[in-house]
Amino acid sequence: MAATLPLIPLVMVPATLPSQAPTRTDGLRYAKEHSGLARMTGDELLATVPELTGLARIEVDPGNEHAVATPADLVKTARHLQTVLDRDDVTGIVIVHGTNVLEETGFFLNLTLDSDKPVVITGAQRPITALGTDGPANLYDAFRVAGSASARGMGVLVVANNEIHSARDVTKTSTYRTHTFKSRETGPLGFADGDGIVFYRAPLRRHTSASEFRLSADTALPRVDVIYTHAGANGDLATAAVGLGAKGLVIAGVGAGSTGDMRETLAGLVRDGIQVVRSARVGEGRVVMLDNWQEPGMVAADNLNPQKAALLLALALTRTGDAAAIQAMFDSY
User: Which of 259, 222, 215 is nearest to 237 (CA)?
Assistant: First the structure.
């Protein structure tokens, strides 16, 4: 029986899910410097959910924990995951990830991994030691999805709260509530219900095996900064970011992507060869080119939030400096 189960490696990055607090009622101060307790290892975490042995042969990745704090970390981790996916005996991968930037790692992997095998990312809002922790259920569902034939070709998936989301669309929406992950406008792809894994739609934007972005040992992502627009904001931070080495800027614009009083400064930076992408801070809706705030040479982020737009822009800049070509990428991914 065990030999027929799918082989699914468990990859871990720093996260809340395996963290430990000193008491079951403490869901806030579970970092080691506060609790004195280290995060569980992969083997320790798996031991808390013995039901997983009925789902898969689970191989704890020897490289755990993998860092994802910098662009270089992301490239290194993605390249490692590619070597795992390239193994003929591996069915899919489950990644345990901190929820704060889970959506960014997921989107980056969605753009760079060359495989149709399921890659499932999960996390938790409460540490494994907490009353009512969401960790074990999310972990169990993640392995269910990773072992499901219906998840193949769906790109990188985020599984939490019994829902299956595309890494492109999902975002964290709540600081502490367990229903934090939502694909605001598009909704989940499907559900991890008690009777099975059910998909209702598939992502249409380019991803994984259909993506043009491939990472090599010498891939270095250029610096891209996100500048937040607000009442009273001007172009000084944008100018400073470029002075500090930014090759591209993503503007978290007000409303439908207005850059406010930054507009003139940004237009000048575009003329100087800096790529500027207009996104929006509002959380839903598209930013489009043919509107009131577009300047020649700017790129519209469509419905990508600022943090995801920054990752796509960084990858785009490894291939081209042409704004029209970069716009075509934002229209495709």
Answer: 259
For 189, phi then psi, to 5°, come to -75, -30
Write out the two tokens for 136: 């074990």
- Asked if residue 132 lies in contact with residue 177, where contact means CB atoms within 8 angstroms, the answer is no
C-alpha to C-alpha distance for 34 and 21, rounded to whole angstroms: 8
pLDDT at 18: 98
Peptide bond between residue 59 and the one before it cis (omega within 30 degrees of 0): no
Asked if 241 and 250 count as a contact pair (C-beta separation under 8 A), the reply is no
Structure token digits, residue 308: 């995801």
Strand partners, 112: none
In terms of C-beta distances under 8 Å and separation of at least 24 residues, what long-range contacts does 234-240 make, across chains too?
234/261, 234/262, 234/265, 235/261, 235/262, 235/264, 235/265, 235/266, 236/265, 238/262, 238/265, 238/266, 238/269, 239/265, 239/269
Residue type, 148: S
Q: Which residue has the tokens 């891939």?
A: 219
Report the pLDDT value the prediction gives residue 125, as an integer from 0 to 100.
98
CA distance 321 to 260: 25
Cβ proximity of 224 and 315 under 8 Å: no
Contact call for residues 133 and 124 (beta carbons, < 8 A)? yes
56 Rama sector, left if φ>0, alpha if ψ -120 to 50, beta otherwise: beta
Structure token digits, residue 318: 């490894």
Prediction pTM value: 0.97
Residue-wise DSSP of 33-101: HHHS-PPPPHHHHHHT-GGGGGT-EEEE-TTPSPP-SSHHHHHHHHHHHHHHHT-TT---EEEE--SSS
Rounded-to-integer distance, Cα 3 and Cα 23, Å: 39
State the residue for tokens 């490692």. 80
Positions of the chain with pLDDT under 70: 1-3
Span 37-95, pLDDT tens digits: 999 999 999 999 999 999 999 999 999 999 999 999 999 999 999 999 999 999 999 99
Phi-psi region of 328 (alpha: psi -120 to 50; beta: other; left: phi over 0): alpha
Query: Could you list the active site residues?
Result: 16
